[in-house]
Amino acid sequence: MERRLVVKVTAGSDAPERCSQAFTVASTALAAGASVSLWLTGESSWFALPGRAAEFELPHAAPLPDLLDALLAGGSVTLCTQCAARRDIGPDDVIDGVRIAGAPTFVEEIMADGAQALVY
């Protein structure tokens, strides 16, 4: 059975430790061989834009751009439809590889066989 982890991160620079934990857990699961889907919601939505992850700083934490790059390369990264709309972020604004999708897609992912979901 495929090991699948869906991580929903709601925190951004407003709660840097929680944000970093979400990215770290997601990228660690990916490195361990799990299929990983990272959802950017709330304040983490800004990290779907080019250069925003590079602005994030947290001492003693892995660089957010490196974690995001790993997730884009080996997993999937999704920006919440409503969160994007509230921030006037459109499909042409996001980093290559980031998709915009809503609750039905999120529910489908977390309800899949073998899926585990975490919310940060």
Automatic annotation (TrEMBL):
InterPro entries per the UniProt record, alphabetical: DsrEFH-like, Sulphur_relay_DsrE/F-like
Q: Name one Pfam family in it.
A: DsrE
Listed name of the protein: Sulfur reduction protein DsrE
Organism for this UniProt entry? Jiangella anatolica
